[in-house]
Design goal:
InterPro entries: Bbp16. The protein is mostly beta strands and about 130 residues long. The protein is about 0% helix and about 40% strand.
Length: about 130
C-alpha cells in the first residue's frame, strides 16, 4: 500500500474518550479537488488493544475552517466494540474521503463510554489494502 504522511489523520493516537484526530487534512482550494469518482480511501489500524465496555464510532467531518469549527459529518462507521479493536488489526471499515467536501477534513472518534486503553492509526492511502 502507498502511504502519504500528509494524509495521516492519527498516528497511534490514544483514544480513551471522544476526540478529534490529531491532524486535519487540507485538501486545498476548491478548484483543486475532484468532483467525481471515489475519494481517497482511509485505512484504520489498531496499535494498542482497546479496553472498556464502550463502543467506538468514527466520523469523517469536513469544514471550511482549519480549526474545524462548524464541521459537518459526511460519513460514519458502524459502532466497534473492544472485541473489534485488537492490536495489529485493520478495522473492517474502508471509507473514502467524499468528493465535493469542504477544504478541511478530520476524523472524530466517538466513544460511547470511556476506554482505559487503545490507540488507532488512520491515514489516507492510494488504495486500501483489504484483508491483509
Amino acid at each position: 500500500m502507498i502511504q502519504d504522511k500528509q494524509l495521516e489523520f492519527s498516528n497511534a493516537q490514544a483514544i480513551t474518550a471522544t476526540a478529534s484526530s490529531t491532524n486535519v487534512i487540507d485538501l486545498g482550494p476548491k478548484n483543486g479537488r475532484g468532483t467525481t469518482g471515489p475519494g481517497t480511501p482511509i485505512e484504520f489500524t489498531v496499535g494498542q488493544t482497546f479496553v472498556g465496555a464502550g463502543t467506538l464510532t468514527i466520523q469523517i467531518r469536513t469544514s471550511d475552517s482549519a480549526d474545524m469549527s462548524g464541521a459537518t459529518v459526511v460519513a460514519a462507521s458502524p459502532a466497534f466494540t473492544a472485541a473489534d479493536l485488537v492490536a495489529g488489526k485493520d478495522l473492517p471499515y474502508y471509507p473514502h474521503i467524499p468528493v465535493n467536501t469542504k477544504r478541511y477534513v478530520d476524523l472524530n472518534y466517538v466513544a460511547s463510554s470511556a476506554f482505559t486503553a487503545g490507540t488507532l492509526t488512520a491515514r489516507g492511502t492510494a488504495a486500501a489494502q483489504i484483508g491483509g
